[in-house]
Amino acid sequence: MKALTYHGPGRRSWGEVPDPVILDPEDAVVRVDAVTICGTDLHILKGDVPEVTDGRILGHEAVGTVIETGPGVRTLAPGDRVLVSCISACGRCAYCRTGTYGQCTGGGGWILGHLTDGTQAEYVRTPFADNSLHKLPQGLNDETALLLADILPTAFEVGVRNGHVSPGDTVVIVGAGPIGLAAITTARLYSPAKIIAIDLATTRLDAARRAGADAVLTVADATDDAIRALSPDGLGADVAIEAVGLPDSFEQCTRIVRPGGRVANVGVHGKPATLHLESLWIRNVTITTGLVDTSSTPLLLDMLAAGQLDVAGLVTHRFGLDEMQDAYDVFADAGQNGALKVALFRT
């Protein structure tokens, strides 16, 4: 089969690799029908994730069709149409038993495209298939379902839920890429008074308005005072969601949050950020971090199938699976071409 493989910082290739096979009784092999590229993949290519070794097939999000199951798989069968979650869950360890699948100690967690071969390929082996694949309802198309593999549960769990977004809140989202836009969409479920989005690119700010942001600011205009002035009482954000993964954006979130507010870090950081405890300690600020657990995926899947989540416009560029290199180039240069989420389909 063909797949996208990593060969050290800045080096990737699309070419022939061995087909995946069942290695464990709980494995399934899935034919990839739709796949996407994540900002985390770009971090890997920059060398920010040293655990990823030479030759690793990247990718951790896909929609596909089960073609083979191991003898230990009970709830899936060949022909089932499934969502391949970005997180794998053994289902037995102490973390999995509380739904904290991202911290699985039984061989799961974020492993696809990280510690095992991932989804940017024609086929993928998926460990712990019963717990890590989700059957898709009739009528939900591949492109829409693809957004449930990572960005929607990540934004919802690590941003909105960790930040305890509540009715009447002022929510500031720094970064209006796919995760930031998904955070706007899912934050609206809790009826905040105002959602403010910040980004470098005007195209992404336009997308933020369409997603439901009440106000948008370019990075140049998003001074701390300007952000506070947009909150009803001038005190700043009840919840500041960091959706970029840069020291400046994280540090800005800690400055613009009001006393008693919450900073929810979602971005993947490759460099240290300064934590100014000398000014934060007295302000009762809560800071959360996290890897998505995907425990919310069934809920979000039901809401998406029922039309209760509007994700129109999140996918901006579409490719054939064999155009993977072109898709990477477009996604990596999103600021110039207005790319949000790219989707690649089996042709």
From TrEMBL:
This is Alcohol dehydrogenase. SMART domains: PKS_ER. The keyword Zinc applies. Belongs to the zinc-containing alcohol dehydrogenase family. InterPro entries: ADH-like_C, ADH-like_N, ADH_Zn_CS, ER, GroES-like_sf, NAD(P)-bd_dom_sf. Transmembrane segments: none annotated. Its cofactor is Zn(2+). It comes from the Bacteria. The lineage of its organism: Bacteria, Bacillati, Actinomycetota, Actinomycetes, Kitasatosporales. Keywords: Metal-binding, Oxidoreductase, Zinc. One of its GO terms (molecular function) is zinc ion binding. Residues 10-344 form the Enoyl reductase (ER) domain.
